[in-house]
Design a protein that fits this description.
Elements lengths: L3 E4 L2 E4 L4 E7 L8 E7 L6 E6 L6 E3 L7 E6 L4 E6 L8 E8 L11 E2 L3 E6 L1
Parallel strand pairs: 2-11
Antiparallel strand pairs: 1-3, 3-8, 4-5, 4-9, 5-6, 7-8, 9-10, 9-11
Amino acid sequence: QVQLVESGGGLVQAGDSLRLSCAASTRPFSGYAMGWFRQAPGKEREFVATISRTGSNSNYADSLKGRFTISRDSAKNTVYLQMNSLKPEDTAVYYCAAGIGQSVYARNYGYWGQGTQVTVSS
């Protein structure tokens, strides 16, 4: 069983930065690819970013490339999402997920955190 706990969300202004963290209970942490998804009110959950088990490969939603960066620290069993130049449309609940392989599809991740709220004011 893998437990994931997100943190780092909050209320920020447009243009600000935030770094989300997701601490995983599983060992070895390198056994799982990790992903970040988000869900805004009234919308479906959407892919944000994913990183491979070793951290050597990452992929992003096209609309977020250049602003968001995913990374992982195996020593801390933690995956991060650095979000820069935030916009009001980035407002959503952000979820981290663990899976066997990288994927842009939520259905391919077997473990999910509870989510952390990010609100960006204009």
